Amino acid sequence: MNFNTISVIGLGYIGLPTAAVIASRRKKVIGVDVNQPAVDTINRGDIHIVEPELDIVVHAAVKEGYLRATTEPEPADAFLIAVPTPFKAENGNDHVPDLSYIEAASKNIAPVLKKGDLVILESTSPVGATEQMAAWLAEARPDLSFPQTHGEDSDIRVAHCPERVLPGHVVRELVENDRVIGGMTAKCSEAATKLYKIFVEGECITTTARTAEMAKLTENSFRDVNIAFANELSIICDKLDINVWELVRLANRHPRVNILQPGPGVGGHCIAVDPWFIVSETPEEARLIRTAREVNDGKPQWVIDKVNEAVGKFLSHHPDKTAKDVTIACFGLAFKPDIDDLRESPALKIAENIVSRHPGRVLLVEPNIAELPKGKAVGGNLVDQQLALEIADVVVLLVDHKSFKSISSAHVKLDYLVDSRGVWEVR
Ligand code: SAJ
């Protein structure tokens, strides 16, 4: 099986880097996305998302003629589907995976499929989604045979190969990480492995589609459960007047203990989402996974309560002042350190809440962005970290950006500090 032309459906945070990296291996890549402005941007050799090094790879791939974007699918030898899998609300449960983007992508590519093609689902998906995708393809193309009915003899090969790259390191991790390849049959896995070998230097490990789906959900649930453990410890330690970061450092000296870092909650579009795909399918069994989600989702409110306490403490020490006179500074808005990505950020959520409720001034410090996003936080002022430290009465540390870590706690008003990341807190 030769892959002369590869099509990537969905040119977002995973699809675009994947398309560009394959194109950098001198393969003809057709990127497909419903977003016309994004398609136009890519065809100019530019990018519409923020990811280090991606601009250079996309620019080169487009200029050398290996990558082209379009809104309409075209024939190819392999199709990689990298579209979103958000939630939809159903019967009062608002964490049910929404496969409508996968369905739309399947129905879109079905007319251009031909015998011998490979279709790979990369989107993080609930168990069974790859089989469902194959069913949609078969329904649209009764003239072709698929693995669910024809096994190894099928005209079309179908596999699930979940992405596992860390935002901020996508270009490197796409090449270096091992890949789990879940074919609907052994031949499907073999074909998918051949495709990934074009650009993956890590190992390609084959399994079934269902196991590959579950592997991806398991990886992110593992991280979520471990972060929840750290977050729960931080709440317990606060009650017991113990510095949780010192505690974690000490416990981690044990050769078989490796506790993660507490924070203001879990953000991003993966770890806060994927565990629900397990919970929604097996609600009775996934008790720990659900509780971890609830612990992490509850952490922003806990931080907000701490900010209220700090404001109350400040006012009790300054009886001549009212809440209107108190200046609060929030340090960090991104969903994790040293990136500019504010999507699904617990820090932004906390800042927005403070801005919407606090009658006094709220200063926002986020060294990785030039302007505030449109939204509730807009009432706050984006200021430089030095100024915020000088004039704030209550300081709220939300993200452990490098530039905050370089500030000594000697320069922070520790009496009214809420430090959700343990950067300045001394107890
Ligand atoms: N966080 C903590 N404490 C920690 C580690 C993380 O509070 O000790 C928070 C972060 O601040 C952030 C959230 O968790 O708000 C998630 O950050 P992350 O760096 O753990 O993960 P993501 O969402 O950027 O990327 C994850 C990765 N998955 C795993 O590490 C198991 C990545 O490899 C996946 O490809 C990605 O999800 C995805 O696309 O699914």
TrEMBL record:
Family that this chain belongs to: Belongs to the UDP-glucose/GDP-mannose dehydrogenase family.
The keyword NAD appears for this protein: yes
Keywords of this entry: NAD, Oxidoreductase
Top-level enzyme category: oxidoreductase
Alphabetized Pfam families for the sequence: UDPG_MGDP_dh, UDPG_MGDP_dh_C, UDPG_MGDP_dh_N
SUPFAM superfamilies assigned to the protein according to its UniProt record, in alphabetical order: 6-phosphogluconate dehydrogenase C-terminal domain-like (SSF48179), NAD(P)-binding Rossmann-fold domains (SSF51735), UDP-glucose/GDP-mannose dehydrogenase C-terminal domain (SSF52413)
Organism: Billgrantia zhangzhouensis
Record-linked SMART domains: UDPG_MGDP_dh_C
Organism classification: Bacteria, Pseudomonadati, Pseudomonadota, Gammaproteobacteria, Oceanospirillales
Family annotation (InterPro entries): 6-PGluconate_DH-like_C_sf (IPR008927), NAD(P)-bd_dom_sf (IPR036291), UDP-Glc/GDP-Man (IPR017476), UDP-Glc/GDP-Man_DH_C (IPR014027), UDP-Glc/GDP-Man_DH_C_sf (IPR036220), UDP-Glc/GDP-Man_DH_dimer (IPR014026), UDP-Glc/GDP-Man_DH_N (IPR001732), UDP_ManNAc/GlcNAc_DH (IPR028359)
Residues in UDP-glucose/GDP-mannose dehydrogenase C-terminal domain copies: 329-426
One Gene Ontology term of the molecular function aspect: UDP-N-acetyl-D-mannosamine dehydrogenase activity
Protein name: UDP-N-acetyl-D-mannosamine dehydrogenase
Recorded superkingdom: Bacteria
Catalytic activity, EC: 1.1.1.336
